[in-house]
Structure formats: C-alpha cells, structure tokens
Amino acid sequence: MYALLVLVPFFSLLALNLPFRELNRRLAFGFAAILFLLQMGLVFIPDVYFWRVHLSFFANIFHFQLAADILSKVVLFCIGLVSLTALCVSRSLIKESEERFNFINIILLAVAGMNGVALAQDIFSLYVFLEITAVSSFILIAFEKDILGLESSFKYIVLSAVATVLMIAGIAILMFIAGSTNFSVIHSALLSQNRNLLLSLSIGLFLSALFIKAGLMPFHGWLPDAYTAAPAPVSIFLAGIVTKVAGVYCLIRIILSVIGFNDQLKGILLLVGAFSAIFGALSALTQSDFKRMLSYSSISQIGYIILGLGSGTALGVAGATLHIFNHAVFKSLLFVNSAAVESQTGSRDIDKMNGLAKQMPWTSLTSILGSLSCAGIPPLAGFWSKLVIIIALWLAGYKIYAVIAVLGSLLTLAYFLALQRKLFFAQPNDEFKNIKEAGFGLIFPAFFLAALIVGAGILSPWILSNFILGFNSLVGG
Amino acid sequence: MANAITVILLFIIGIYCILVSHNLIRVLIGLEILIKAVTLLVIFCGYQTQNTALAQALVITIIVIEVVMMTVAAGVVVGIHRQNNSLDARNIRKLKG
Amino acid sequence: MLLELLILILLVSAGLWTVMTRSLLRSAMGLALASAILTIVMFRMNANIAGVFELSVCAGLIPVLFISVISLTQPMTFKEASDHMKERLHRFWGLPLIVVVLGVTLALVSFKYKVTPAAIQEGKPDVRFILWHLKQFDLLGQIIILFTGVFGVAILFKERNKRG
User: Whole domain around residue B25: which residue ranges?
Assistant: First the structure.
C-alpha cells in the first residue's frame, strides 16, 4: 500500500494531462489540494488499516520494497502540509491559469519524488527519487524565467550534480563492500567489517553529498540565492520541505538505517551543526532582504536539526524529527508572510519598509507567532523541539554544544526582533500609507499555519510523551 | 587498481573544469566528465565483486537520470543566454552567495 | 593487462582533451570520444547492456544536446576565440601537470585496504531480472524523472511571455 503514495501523484499527473485539458486545468487545483490533504490524513490512520494492508493483486504486479516508520510518517505529513500551503499561495500569486497548471504539475512530480525518498529502503532508490525532487526544484526555481531565477537554478544544478556524483561514488563503494544496495543488507555487512579506509571514504562521500543538499554552512552557497530568487510559492516549497527531505531526512535515514552512530560521526555532525546554527544566525543578522534573512535562518535551523542528530541518542533524534516538523510549519508561515508583504508593497527590503503593523494586522500577527516559534519562546511549538534537542545534548554529555544551542537561540531571537521592529512596529513611512492587507489567499494559509504552531505548542507535552517512545526502537543502542 | 586511479584522475579533471571554466556550457561538460568517472567506478566495483548484473542495472538508471538532468540544465543555459546574451560565468555576480 | 592500461590512458587523455580544447564544439566531440572509450572499458568488464546504453545515449544523444545548445547560443567570432584561447591556456596549463603527477604517484603508491567484499552470489542473475524484480521501484523512478524532464523542457524552452 505504501506504493500508492508515489503512484497516485504520478498517475493523477498523467490523468490531468491526457484528455480534456481545458476541464482539467480548472480541476487541477482542487484535485491536488484533496490529494495533499489525504496524504496528511493518512499519517494518522493506524497501521492496520492502511500501512500494513497488502492487496494481493497489487503485490503481484509491483515488487516494491518500501517501509515507513515514525520518522517517514512525520516527513510525509510535512510534505502534504507544505505542498498544500504552496498550492494555496500559488492560487493568488501565479495569475495565469496556464502557468499555474504547469506549477501544479511540477509540484505533483516533486511530491511523488519526495514520497519515494521517504519510503525507500534502498540507497539507490533513495538516490533516484532524490534526483526527481532535485530536477523538479531546478525547474521550479527557474519557473518565471527571470535572470536571477535562471542563474540561481544553474548554481543549484551544478552543486546538486556534484553532490549526486559524490553520492553515487559512495553507493558504488558500499556496493563493493556489501554486494547489495539494500539498507538492511548493507547494515549487516558493515557490522561485520572492521573500520577501514574504504568504509570511511564511502561514509565521508555520503556525508559531504548530503551536507551540500541540505545547505549546511560550509556548503551553503546555493541556498540563499535559490530561496531568494525563486517565485514566492516556490520558496515556500523549497524552504519548507525540499531541502529538508533531500538533505536532512536522507542524512538521518542513512545514519539510522545504514551506517549507525560512532564517535567520529557524532563529532563531525555536532561540529557542522553548531557551525551552521551560529553562523547562519549571524549572517541572518546582517541581511536586509526579507527572504534572504529567512534563508539564512533556515540554514541556522537546519544546524539545530543536525545538532540533535549528532547527540546520537533516541531523544536527540526525536527532537531533530520534531524540529523538522516545526521548521516546516514556521518557515512556511514566514515565507507566506514575506510573500504577502512583497505582493502588497512590491519590495522585500526591510530597511525601506516601516510600520506595516497598522496596514497589515493579520500578516503582522502571524509573522510574530512564526518568529517567536522559530526563536523558541515557551508556549509555542518551536520551544519544545529546541528544548528536547538541548536536553538530549546535555544528557549525552555534549554540554558545550548545549550551551552553543542556547546561544544560537538567543541570536535567532535577536534577528527576528530586529525584523519585527523595523518591518511592522517602527514609525509608519509615508510611502507605504496606502498599503492594504493581503488577500484571503495569503491570509488563510498563514492563519492555518499559525493555528498549527499554537495548537502543537499547547499539545506538545502529550505529543512528546507519545512521540519519543517511537524512536527508542529506531535508534537502538 | 588502474581503474581506481583513472576514476580519481577523471574526477580531478572534471572538478578542475567546473572550478576554472568561465563558460556555462563548459561547466556542464565538466559535470559530464564527473559522471563518466563515477559510471566507471560503479562498473568497476560490480566487476570486482562479480556482481556485474546489479552494477549494470545501476548504470542504466544513472544514464537515464543524467540525460534528464543535462536536458534541464541545457534549458536553463539557453534561458540565461536569452536574457544576458552571454554565457560567461563571471556575469553571474548578481547573486551574492 | 597492457591493453587495459592503454585504454584507460586513452580515456584520461580524452577527458583532458575535452576540457583543454579551444572550441566548444570540439569539446562536445571529446565528450563523445570519452564516452565511446568508456564503452570499450565496459565491454571488457562484461557490462554489455550498460555499454550499449552508454554508447547510444552518452556518446550519441548528449553531444547532440550540447551541440544544439552551442548553436542556439551563438558562438564567438574567430578573433574573440583566439584571444580567449590565450587566456584559457593561462588558466588551464596546470591541469595536465596535476593529472600526470598524481597519476604516477598513485600508481607507485599501492594503497592497501583490508576489505572482504561481499559473498559472491551464486547463479548470477541476469541484469534484466534484477531491473524487473529487484529494482522495480527504480524503474518507476526512471519513468517519473523522464516525465519531469518532459515538463521541464516544455516550461524552460518555451519563449518567455510578454509581461516579464
């Protein structure tokens, strides 16, 4: 049944493009929205009803080896959520119906790819579906065919292709060692190997490939450009989910299911994570472009996720997974806000805009919730995941890194306060006196996401107690 | 052994080409050479473990993906040329990185 | 063994020529040449089917793609090209040196790795069997990525609309 998550987006894409193009063009939006809502709902269905059912005729045709654990389910939920948000935003920001139809098509392809990544049990399948996601994001970044979009798309293509090559080299060496590309086969083969040069080489190749894909700090060159230059719905999609799936999820999956933790690996992860968390936040402080600031903030938050992973305990991985979810929610929200501000004022320069709180009250309110959640202020959802990560680091004995994590949180608060003060609460500027609140298409998703932040924050004690248990079996020793 | 050295050398040629080239098409050609290197590596690893069948299955998939990626990249390059009338990578300085 | 070595040296030189040559068209040709030599290597390693793919797609299709892009993007005039050549030589002279020195060093240093490769499967399955039975999910992935490519071409190559 897992395979449906890949097959349904793909076949619905085919169905949308074959006959009756005119009719389909009108139906496409609702159809995709229902699809993404269904995907979000499926995650909450108990195993017996959907995940474990094997239809016999289905199993006879397709020989897929897929599986989903709690980590995959969280990611699948985020994919549905962020795609839905991007879809809603595209309705009011991409005006031409032809273009919007193309946008929906590519989003469907990207979702099929990301679902495949979340379900794959084979490093080579992981690579194939990662590439589907990557190619669709190349197209999405260059979607408007303006020069900045094309150039940042080219930059992304080059770095992503280098990452891909490193990854295939890693796969080839693992295949040499284990004779297969299946997760479990490689895992048991690696357990029987002594540590040696070739093994370290393949792990190193994999890590550097995924660091590039995730946009971590020494390899982050493409990320701010791509997020900033892409059209608004695309930046929501990219920042909210694509880099999380392509980089961070794959990293967690490979480490949990294939390589396993060891001290060296933890050291590298902690170092890279801390570096990204701090320097991402510092670079965000100096930006004056709204979207560029959010991109650097993304780098910093990815650093947090990697820090949680680097602690190497079940608690840390649970915190990292929770932070993937929280980051998908609050970063999508903030990008929706930036799209609202940009569509109303025609500019993204924070220094130029002042005191929009009166003209755009709802955007202002939701963006405050988003930034506070990102900075980790207590009742909101972002606080809990950061708390879990910091506690996990402390308990694992990495006290210095726990302190660094707290420090990074303060920096996050600093740049978001600066942003809010300038953008919404300073003395109103004459130039922007006639600005109105953005339309319903931008306010509704923002409200939905803000409600999710508050709701998840209040329900967090309950979520945490149920959630962390699921990771004990996953990390194992 | 000679195969492994060939892979490393091709890899260095490709990376050098990507880093030093000023023409966008030549950057793509550098990427192609990287992919050639890695294809050789996959086939070589399969040959060493007498698992050529699996290696071939992987290589066929890699080739299909490579073609799609290069086609999209070519589309982007043509787009850049339409806008800029130049393919010089030094013109890509509008992006700060 | 000597023949193998010769082919591999040819492969590296083809790669080097691809990168160093002056005109982009020759560079695309060099890529085709490198692919063709790689195909020979593949055939000698019993990878026939993948070799056929490499020959038809990488040595045939991709250079055609590059050549069409080059012709779409107006190449330089001859004078520009010869000026460009001097400057290029300035940037690229280090590469053959690095390649030769590194190649010789690596050949002299025989680095040892203690890896026991996986148990060799008995009754070697055919590549078609593997693709269809073990790698079916990847086949689905191939189909999806082909469609992604089709949509990408449809979107990217279309002339830009007026409002941009």
Answer: 2-87
